[in-house]
Amino acid sequence: MDRWYVVHTQPNAEAKALSHLRNQRFRAYLPRIAKRRRHARKVEEIAAPLFPRYLFVQLDLAAERWRAIRSTVGVADLVSHGDAPAPVPDGVVEAIRAREDERGLVVLGSAADFRRGDRVTIAEGALEGCVGLFEAATDDERVIVLLELLGREVRVRVPPTALRAIA
Description:
10% of the residues lie in helices and 41% in strands.
């Protein structure tokens, strides 16, 4: 029976490991997110691994030569319990894939559920109960919310999971 398993890669070798696993006919998946990178006074958007140093591989442990994965270029090891690879709970990889946009990049958190100008309330943390306007998602897993505090507009960064929509 085919299940998903986690491959631990060498540092910055996710794409290399993915390529070599696919060359060996393994069904591998590397979820990626859009990330902003600043370099030489330029800001560019790149596709970065959702889980740095990890990717998924689909295997039938009884029928496939899965031990070959451990000696694949770019791979450090398989995440295991004892001698056997530890399976990913059912539905996890499918849920990640369901969040991919048209470019094949995973859209994280509830930020995907909001549009600029949507009224939101902060449901946790020091600003719990404050109402504001959703402004944007940032590249560091935060969102920017415009709040009115002490008579002026203030931009705050909060995790997207802290937001709730106001109908």
